Amino acid sequence: MRSILIIGAGRSASSLIRYLLSKSESENLHLIVADLSLALAEKKTQQHPNATPIALDIFNIAERKEAIEKASIVISMLPAHLHIEIAKDCIQFRKHLVTASYISDAMQALDEEAKENNLIFMNEIGLDPGIDHMSAMKVIDEIRVKGGKMLLFESFCGGLVAPESDNNLWNYKFTWAPRNVVLAGQGGAAKFVQEGTYKYIPYCNLFRRTEFLEVEGYGKFEAYSNRDSLKYRSIYGLDDILTLYRGTIRRVGYSKAWNMFVQLGMTDDSYVMEDSENMSYRQFVNSFLPYHPTDSVEIKTRLILKIDQDDIMWDKLLELDLFNPDKKVNLSNATPAQILEKILSDSWTLEPDDKDMIVMYHKFGYEINGEKKQIDSKMVCIGDDQTYTAMAKTVGLPVAMATLLILNGKITTPGVQLPINKEVYVPILKELEEYGVVFNEQTMPYFGYNPDLF
């Protein structure tokens, strides 16, 4: 049997493992599911006859090399910074590698060796990055085949709570790594190009510059800018495009409310707060407010954030129980961002019966035969439950499908790569439709921009 080594059995691996097990008989597959927690690996394999759960510490070099050497192909579902040693072992033992992570400089540096060994190192084959690349390149390539010239490309994606589980004033719950949500947008200004002009949004303004989106059947959304949209120009072959913008989707009103935390300084991860372990939620809030001999924490918060008495923003803060003097942070040597994550987790953790939702939205503006046109492409995916979430489905399924295509010789281009070639995106997008990941494309009037106002 052909052996697939899956390293990492966390939340994103659920649909990946289920898919490959469903194909194991017809495709002659045996899965080795490796995780630091043997119990987690056992839970994900569910005593399937074509799966073997093992405990694996990737920092145990001998164990790691032994597992990789025995595999036909390797999937790493670990955090991105942990891929590189696995990738080097794959070079040594001549094994193909698949990950859902962005291509790091260290991974890219292995490109020549991968090609010399005729190895495929497929990266960025999850949701975002992944499905966004594939669905975008499909339309861009179709426009080029018709002789069109790309003018505008905007791409948005968001992990949200499904409508039936949307029951808080923020219209949001954690469906993925909470820390990434708290730190979103930090590390440099958002950069994009609009009508040929470079634009920059510093972090302090990021959540007040949003674009509105309408998705039929699901209502209105907003999107704030991702940190660096410009790197996708060369990747997609759009070096001359006038407008290129990528953003993160949330429900309308989220960004304005989140900006309160930014303005107070609660999302800062650069310093540790003294005696954080014994701090109450109320004391945490008060730490960012000026001293006043008589005004309460609530009054000071209203004044500094300019929140009127009838403003829904105030109700959103109250819903988080931020001013509770009895709730303790219970985190030692914590940064403001870590404390905020803890507070939000009280209110934003998915309940057992909750479902998540992925929304992806692309806009393609182009010119053909002297006429400007636009295509909007939209995808909504709802999770099944807390194990087979929409996030796990949209991250894990493309990884699994790419792995099988590589094993079966359908993807043959060697080297460190992302899924922008037809041999990758055509079969995967087609198969994803069978699992409810469907893009609806509509021809629209060209959106564009007024060049006098940009």
UniProtKB/TrEMBL annotation:
User: Matching Pfam families, A to Z?
Assistant: Sacchrp_dh_C (PF16653), Sacchrp_dh_NADP (PF03435)
User: What InterPro entries does the record tag this protein with?
Assistant: AASS (IPR051168), NAD(P)-bd_dom_sf (IPR036291), Sacchrp_dh-like_C (IPR032095), Sacchrp_dh_NADP-bd (IPR005097)
Molecular-function annotations in GO: saccharopine dehydrogenase activity
Q: Name one GO cellular component term.
A: cytoplasm
- Signal peptide (residue range): none
Q: Which SUPFAM superfamilies match?
A: Glyceraldehyde-3-phosphate dehydrogenase-like, C-terminal domain, NAD(P)-binding Rossmann-fold domains
Could you name the domain of life of the organism this protein comes from? Answer: Bacteria
Concerning PANTHER family, the annotation shows: ALPHA-AMINOADIPIC SEMIALDEHYDE SYNTHASE, MITOCHONDRIAL, SACCHAROPINE DEHYDROGENASE
Q: Where is the Saccharopine dehydrogenase NADP binding domain?
A: 4-121
Its recorded name reads Saccharopine dehydrogenase
Q: Which GO terms describe its biological process?
A: lysine biosynthetic process via aminoadipic acid
Give UniProt keywords alphabetically.
Oxidoreductase
What are the residue boundaries of the Saccharopine dehydrogenase-like C-terminal domain, all occurrences included? 126-437
